[in-house]
Amino acid sequence: SVTGGLHGANRMGGNALSETLVFGARAGKAAAEWAKEQMDSKTVSLHDANAIPSAGQKHGDPAPLMEKLRGIMWEKGGIIRHKEGLSEALKDVKAIREEADQLSLNRDGKTIGRILELRSAAETAEMMLKSALIREESRGAHYRKDFPKQDDEQWFCNIRMRLRDDQKNVHFFGCCQE
Predict the structure, then answer these.
(1) Which regions in the chain score pLDDT beneath 50?
(2) Do 115 and 64 contact (CB within 8 A), yes or no?
C-alpha cells in the first residue's frame, strides 16, 4: 500500500492506486534501463547493488513475525500517534528485523519470498516510525497526540532517509523542500 508520496499524507485508496500505476511504471522503466547498463558493462557486481540478502541460519516461519509487525504498526504507528508508542514500536520493529535477518534462505521459493517481504516490510516500518518520531507536528491524516497542531514553518518539507553504509541502519539525513 502507499502511505505517502505524490499526495502527501493522503491515504485515499483512489489516489494511492494512481500513484502505484504511474510511479510503478516509471520505476520499472528506470530499473530496466539500469539493468541494461549493467549488462553492457564488463563486470556486474550484484553485491555492490545490495541485491544479495544475508542467508541466515534459522528455519522459522516468517508468517507470525509479519503478523506481529502488522499489529505493531496498526496499534502504535497508525494514524493517531505519540512519542512513547512510536518509540516502543521502533524497538519492537528492530527486534523483528533482527529475527527476520536470521531466517534461512535455504528454503523453497515461496518461503524465501515471504522472508524477503518480511525483511523489506520491517525496514520500511522502521523508516516510517523514525520519520514519525522526527516530525513533531500533526499533518494531513497523521496525528501526533503530543504535537496536535500543524507547523508549516518548521515541517513544510519531505523527510528523507537512507540506509547507512552497513546496509542495516536507517539514517535520517534531512528535510527537503521538494
Answers:
(1) 1-3, 42-51, 178
(2) no
